[in-house]
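User: quick one - fold this with adenosine-5'-diphosphate bound?
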Amino acid sequence: MSKPIYEMVIGLETHVELRTKTKIFCSCTNEFGAEPNTHVCPVCMALPGTLPVFNEQVLTYAAMAGMATNCYVHHKSRFDRKNYFYPDLPKAYQISQFYRPICEHGHLNIHTSQGEKRIGITRIHIEEDAGKLIHDDRLGTCLDMNRCGVPLIEIVSEPDIRSAEEAVAYLRKLRAILTYTGVSDCKMNEGSMRCDVNLSIRKPGEPFGTRSEMKNLNSFQSVERAIAAEYVRQVAAVEAGETLVQETRRYDQKTGKTSSMRRKEDSADYRYFPDPDLPEVYLSDAEMAQIKASIPALPDERRDQYMTDFGLTAYAAEQLTDERWLAEYFETAAPFAKSPAALANLIIGEVFAQITLRDTEHTGERDERSLPILPQNLANLSDLLSGGRVNSSTGKKILSIMFDADCDPIAYAEAHNLFTVTDEAVLRAAATKVLAQNPDLVASYRGGKLGVQKALMGKAMAETRGKADPERLREMLVEGLTGTDTE
Ligand code: ADP
Ligand code: MG
Ligand code: ZN
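Assistant: Sure. Structure tokens for the protein plus adenosine-5'-diphosphate:
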């Protein structure tokens, strides 16, 4: 296939809710999923005469996010008002950081099928979240203000991303870094991580084209699909001789298309100015050092460790460090396994497959609840498989049973007599019986239709109730078929 004429240029703006106990400018609880309008007060409801008081924990978390993404973290930063009217923003302005964001000039590394690549981070700034409009058939449009004043950081990437694969790899890496540091739980399905995609196209080597922005994408899948759809639309428009305009577009999951919402505002339209209610915020060297020291080993470091300590491939190490809970699970299980590399392969193969199978709502999200198996039990199953004590199809069955009701697979295999049959006499008897009972297949095989071996193998396997050592059984069958002992 020839290279496409147009390359895509993508920059991402990612909003992440911070895991503080209370909101950013008042002492209301910061908690997802509460009854509407139960975590509100005069400050976050924007009643006249109230004043914001800054929650210092937000500054710590924002600085930590910046350090973990190789940013320069400023000692001093400041809040600005971003003025716009929207029904879920009762103040009619959002407190944000525009002129003096806390972090700038960072980067993170992504690993894709094309290898490793560095994606620049322009800035990270602190802001407050808005409320939520809920459209109810009976009640009409309702406003839930629990989310008003939930602390956010916005991470703005450089336009360094060139494909949907890179965009998703960037978001996954960002989510891994932020969850490892504990600043956010980054749950896209609960809205604690949301992403705006900016996309333009150009012929390679040309200056950047006019971008459109698709707001509030809340799954990796919709990010991928929105990028694909918007790329096709822009290419068609340019080929048809149209001039693209800078605009905000909505991606509709149902139609798989993007549609225009509004011409994009420029920053001048927001009339940013320093918030007179809030003083400058400051981090001392000592505070910075303390924050830095509290950052745990990050995904890239663990990835390298897994490769050297456990002999994992880059691919396996990348998969396991992608999510914090999973890395912790693997690190707990690995010491119990004879071969951590085999355990890793079991996880990224059959365990992921089981999780996907059980993801009936097709969210594509995984968390600790999706793997309800004790780490030691999974390590035992890995040993059974890697030691050849159960074959792979029996291993799959046991795994599925463990997902339904966790148990020790060794005890289970013993109780149900599931260990691999390696006894030569038993295997030979099974092979001989199947060959004798299927003369037609044997004749076809000998007549050159080698494919029928598969059917015979299936039958012979069934003779051992699925428990045969498949390699040995195949050898016995082939011996019989090629006639060395039937003549
Ligand atoms: P705004 O706040 O108005 O959305 P920014 O200048 O902060 O604008 O940029 C937003 C995002 O758009 C950044 O992630 C940046 O990398 C990206 N971006 C800027 N120019 C382009 C372009 N021509 N094509 C694609 N993305 C772009
Ligand atoms: Mg934007
Ligand atoms: Zn409040």
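One thing worth noting: The chain is about 40% helix and 20% strand.
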